[in-house]
């Protein structure tokens, strides 16, 4: 089954994609933020919350819940969900940077809150390449009026950004915008940074552990019109349909990863384990990657 079919079936899988608007807390200017977004299938927030609370130390469902809250602008709730996700996986840089972003968006302060800064710093301690943490710590400099320092850090991030990365254009626009606002020439510096950039994105980056999964706001809103019991039935039906399609055409590693994620979100670890076995059987050349994806989801 093609990736396009998966997107149509389960409301879109977007690997390492998307951008959200950053509220400029100091002076009201708009900034654009690179983030990594993955959509699985459209359970409601209530369903995600139920799944998360059923397994308090499983970071996956809490990450799902945090992103769903974030998408609906419930930033304090998102921060609480990400904080619980961190309790289940304290070595996951993506969870820490997600927590920092949610804490930042939850504040009305004109300064970046200390607990957001500490989360971003923890993310970089675990993974110095974490793009979101690097971006927002540069934002911190911009908020403190160190515009040159912020631009320098963003340019360094641009140097490490593979051509075609989903956040590439947004990052470049941020640099151009802040340069224009503060009369800082950036065109030549952007050109120089572009020359230093890697040729291509890393091969087979994990989609399960290094993304922010969750439904879009539109998907949540649509599912919200359905009775609670029917909401889960809809999600189960979609996952079972994906399962059947993968069994008919198993040569689709990404589809199996989505099925494993979906099974875990539904609280079906045994079926997730079986999906891993079936995925490896149908894609023996991708066995190593599939096992790593399963490990990121804590599938045994």
UniProtKB/TrEMBL annotation:
TPR repeats span: 59-92
Kindly list the biological process annotations in GO that this record carries: cytochrome complex assembly
Q: Which UniProt keywords apply?
A: Cytochrome c-type biogenesis, TPR repeat
Transferase among keywords? no
Q: Does the keyword Cell cycle apply?
A: no
What's a Pfam family this protein contains? TPR_11
Stored PANTHER family: CYTOCHROME C-TYPE BIOGENESIS PROTEIN CCMH
The protein depicted here goes by the name Tetratricopeptide repeat protein
Organism, per UniProt? Pontixanthobacter aestiaquae
Taxonomic placement: Bacteria, Pseudomonadati, Pseudomonadota, Alphaproteobacteria, Sphingomonadales
């Amino acid at each position: 089954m093609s990736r396009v079919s998966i997107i149509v079936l389960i409301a879109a899988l977007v690997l390492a994609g998307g951008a959200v608007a950053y509220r400029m807390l100091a002076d009201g200017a708009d900034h654009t933020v690179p983030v990594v977004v993955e959509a699985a299938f459209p359970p409601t927030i209530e369903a995600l919350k139920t799944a998360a609370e059923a397994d308090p130390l499983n970071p996956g469902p809490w990450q799902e819940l945090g992103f769903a809250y974030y998408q609906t602008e419930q930033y304090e709730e998102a921060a609480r969900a990400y904080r619980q996700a961190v309790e289940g996986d304290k070595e996951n840089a993506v969870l820490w940077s997600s927590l920092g972003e949610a804490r930042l968006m939850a504040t009305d302060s004109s300064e970046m809150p200390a607990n957001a800064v500490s989360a971003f710093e923890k993310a970089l301690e675990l993974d110095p390449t974490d793009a979101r943490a690097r971006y927002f710590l540069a934002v911190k400099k911009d908020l403190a009026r160190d515009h040159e320092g912020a631009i320098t850090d963003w340019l360094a991030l641009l140097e490490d950004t593979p051509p075609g990365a989903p956040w590439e254009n947004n990052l470049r626009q941020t640099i151009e915008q802040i340069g224009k606002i503060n009369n800082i020439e950036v065109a030549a510096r952007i050109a120089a940074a572009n020359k230093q950039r890697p040729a291509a994105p890393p091969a087979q980056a994990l989609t399960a552990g290094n993304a922010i999964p969750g439904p879009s706001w539109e998907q949540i809103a649509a599912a919200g019109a359905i009775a609670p019991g029917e909401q889960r039935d809809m999600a189960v039906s979609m996952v079972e349909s994906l399962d059947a399609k993968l069994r008919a055409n198993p040569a689709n590693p990404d589809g199996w990863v989505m099925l494993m994620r979906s099974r875990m979100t539904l609280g079906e670890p045994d079926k997730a384990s079986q999906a891993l076995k079936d995925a490896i059987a149908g894609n023996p050349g991708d066995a190593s990657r599939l096992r790593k994806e399963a490990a990121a989801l804590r599938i045994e």
